Predict the structure.
Amino acid sequence: MCGICGILNLDGSPVDGDILNAMNATLVHRGPDQGAAVLKGACGLANRRLAILDLSPSGALPMQSSDGAITLAYNGEVYNYPALKHTLETQGYIFRSGSDAEAVIALYKQHGPGFLDHLRGMFALAIWDAPNHTLVLARDRLGQKPLYYYHDDRRLIFASEIKALLQHPDVPRQPARERVPLLLAYGYVPAPFTFFDGIHMLLPGHALVVCDGTLTTQAYWTPPAFAGASPSARIEDYLDELRVMLDEAVRLRLLSDVPLGAFLSGGLDSSLIAAYMARHTTGRVKTFAIGFTGEESFDETPHARRVAEVLDTEHHEFIVEPDAIDLLPMLVWHHDQPFADSSAVPTYLVSKLTREHVTVALTGDGGDEMFAGYERMAAATLAGHYRRLPGVLRSGIQAVLNRLPEATSYRGVVQRGRRFVQGAALPPAEAYFSWVRVFDDALITSLLSDEQTHFPTAQFAGLFDPADRRDFTAQLLDVNLITYLPDDLLIKADRASMAPSLEARAPFLDHKLVELAARIPSNLKLKNGVTKHILKEAAAGLLPDDIIHRKKHGFGVPVGRWFRESLETYARDILLDPHTLARGYFDEAALRRLLDEHTSGQRNHGHRIWTLLTFEWWHRLFIDPAVPTGP
């Protein structure tokens, strides 16, 4: 895995190499093995490389064609590289390296912008075609690898991470204050926007092309629409193909010249990936799990240990008590933006500890999004039955829940029940987004000043078509694929793994597997309230039944307990600091009320407090200093 950056001066003036090198230096964690820049007049490309394929100097990046006409800055892996190489060689191309990056250059020379259709993998890349004065930027179909850019009438500046863009003196560092409600509601700013004014993220499956100064952005792949329910659908019609495709997706991701392993939580998705790995690995698969002391409901290591024993893996288990005070600013620095998903903590920690043993790790990311694995999808169906209960009964249930205190355990019954009944009172689309939100409209109203309060519901309202006749599960799968997956889950996976220089690969996000999953009717995924039904059938014979049918457990940390106990004073000191309050975002009384409710046990605001802390630390790291330099 790597990091890329570059500058294109639209007026034709030469690129300042010192600025480009300063940008590249911020990306060393993404590529500690090698780094360089190539200046070609008005365009300069730079790369930091984490060497996975072809560890020799011939695989160095950026890479140029033999005639020097084409320069490639490259972040990612093309898993069908061996097949592409064979085809290109039969057509007369002579490879000078064993790197998949060279195949990308050869395909571009052969197909032009159509080269992207031939790539099966995860990537963010930049190609400078000097003879045609053309720059091509592109991201993989699902958005596993990031790419940000800033442009004005003089230049286009791009990079794998925003912190690299900020090294250019022409890139502004201004918060996009109008996006605060959106950030509080969903915990992230949806692409193509960021929380920096003027800085954008290239959307997944898109290419940005600049030719003779004209900039165009277009999709080269469109996410498939997930099939709705089909009463006549049979699992047998899809099961064999699903197993074959899963096996192939895992096998392709074992392409590596460095050691690799797998994250193992003990859940269905990661366990299934490890089981397929075992089929294609000489010797024992290396697996890695992490647990936390202090609150058993967040610890999955016993389940991971059980799977490791069944698969006979070389299992590594880490039990930690993370120092969140140190981790929080570090994670904000690596995410470049305020980011509410506290599961970045365990993802980073397991990545850091895994990196001590291997350079590449396979993950179970994407299984829930492809096969309806989230309980909130089942809740959307259950809500329809709940709405048919007598109004007096529903009011009584809500009144009882509102009086009960909220625990900090992973599966706290009261807060889950409260969220469900509040959401179930809304239309289906609004209900679903109420379950995935961090702050609801009432809390946003109380926290923000009147002039800032405009609600973010409309951001996602257009994603649901009133004329869509598919069942709601299929529609939710569509929406998750283009919102939560790329803007939260994959951002977290990329930053948390790349911070310690670990490459994470997700077989479930193979685009051919995604296209197959989309064809499978939704009632074979969510069946009678059972999530991932067909995937569980695919796992039969590979994994024990108790693992296959174990209740889903997210990858989290006990932030609620932290902010009631060891970090209570820390949270108050940061959020009620006069410097914090002077920014003018939040009402002090509302902040105090939120903190008091959490401390008293009346409400579990743990993830909301985490969100507010990342927001403040982002300002301290990226906005306050004269030059952002990290924690």
The two ends are 24 Å apart (CA to CA). The mean pLDDT is 91. The longest helix spans residues 606-623.
